[in-house]
Design goal:
With 112 residues, the chain is of the alpha/beta class. The chain has one domain: Transcription Regulator spoIIAA (2-Layer Sandwich), CATH 3.30.750. It contains four helices and five strands. The longest helix is centred in the middle third of the chain and has 13 residues, at 60-72.
């Protein structure tokens, strides 16, 4: 498990075929390239769900990477973000991310 000031990424394939990218810890200028590489490595023809449930901090560079990855999705439903209530969700709401990408409160909700 990542310490609060570190980043850990876990990629997995959901039985539905979606790629789930779990983000654990902080994503900031020092760690955003790791998230960017993980998202770039996923197949753009598959649905990608970024699970920020265990993300403790997200800065503007991370927000930019998420929105850029969503814009590159080949399918209309090709990208979603999971962010429960809290600081990370508040940042996404303030930035208006839901105008670009679906935001969900739980992973189950995003995958249904």
């Amino acid at each position: 498990m990542a310490r609060p000031d570190e980043l850990e990424l876990a990629l997995g394939q959901h039985p539905s075929g979606a790629v789930v990218v779990r983000v654990i810890g902080e994503v900031d200028l020092a760690t955003v390239s790791e998230m960017e590489k993980a998202l770039a490595a996923s197949d753009s023809s598959q649905r990608v769900v970024v699970d920020l449930t265990e993300c403790t901090f997200l800065d503007s560079s991370a927000l930019h990477v998420l929105l850029a990855a969503a814009a590159k999705a080949e399918r209309e439903d090709g990208f979603a973000i999971v962010a429960p209530e809290g600081g990370v969700r508040r940042l996404l709401d303030i930035a208006g991310a839901d105008a670009t990408v679906p935001l969900h409160s739980t992973l189950d909700e995003a995958l249904s």
